[in-house]
Amino acid sequence: MTRAQRLMATLRGEAVDRAPVSFYELNGLDQRSGDLDPFNIFSDPSWLPLLELTRARTDCIVLRDIGALGAETDPFRAFSRDESWMEGGSRLTRRSIEAGGRVLTMRTRRDPDVDTVWTTEHLLKDSGDLEALLQLPLVAPRGPIDPRPVADAESQLGDAGIVGLDTPDPLCLAAALFDMAEYTVVAMNETALFHRLLERISAFLLPGVEAAAMALPGRLWRIFGPEYASPPYLPPRLFREYVLGYDRPLVRAIQRGGGFVRLHSHGRLREVLDSICELGVDALDPIEPPPQGDVELAYVRERCGRDLVLFGNLEIADIETLSEAEFEPRVHRALDEGRGGRGFVLMPSASPYGRKLSPRTLHNYETIVRLAGA
Q1: Fewest CB within a 10 Å sphere: which of 75, 146, 147, 336?
Q2: How many domains does the chain contain in total?
């Protein structure tokens, strides 16, 4: 089988010659060692062997944000004034929004040696800010979907893998407006107000997802954000309210277009797994093992794995810190417990994000490929 055929057969629940292997954000296409942008951590020579291994040996899954296709996922962009500048080698960005007689502000920082964006000031500081934000007249964009970013990536990949579509869910967009402490207070204690926010965001987001699903049918999708409502942040009853109620229309829209939905949720799953199964998704990731999560693959496979493709469950911290003797049993266990049911993709929970890749990390990635038979 080609790598693309293996992945698609797995999503359909068909027999494959071996379990696919994905390095998650390391996708064999987007990380460029020759790009000398100061914020490109992958230009460091320590990354080159891993990038080559990813391209040559893994079943590549390249995700494309639906926002890049014309399906806007930022409900408040039209009302925002954004400005960026360099300071101390970092890129700082400030967003300001005038709403309800208030000026709401948000700040982020991107450092050159870390492949992530830190939010140093969140847009909403309290429920009063949320009341003000809800006065904005959100209107879902109606522009056409541009399939070229997906078509271009598929052309570059060839039979080495597949291209999927990526979207936050309403909860992800809502929760990220607050710092974590304030979010949990509002979501727990002001549920009617928080539902108003989710309803507004859902009405904005859903038309774009529907349009992308119809314009690009039959693809794998990743929906991310449900972890914001899983324990210990919120109780299971609010997971049902804030995830099932607003993600189900997204899932149905994607599946109507022949797509496959992979739900992304870090952390603890045991108390919300029944709700996830009820949602009707096709796959689940990254199913982190204890202590980062609270279930093993075997538990998920027994509970609802006959209906789900399981993606996981190698913890990135183990890849970066364990010796080969310690790490090999983790890979064997994942491969053993992932077998059966609809299908399994061996995958880490995340990817390294520092400029220097350690020899131990590289060696453990090589171990993943070797033990999986890729």
Answers
A1: 336
A2: 2
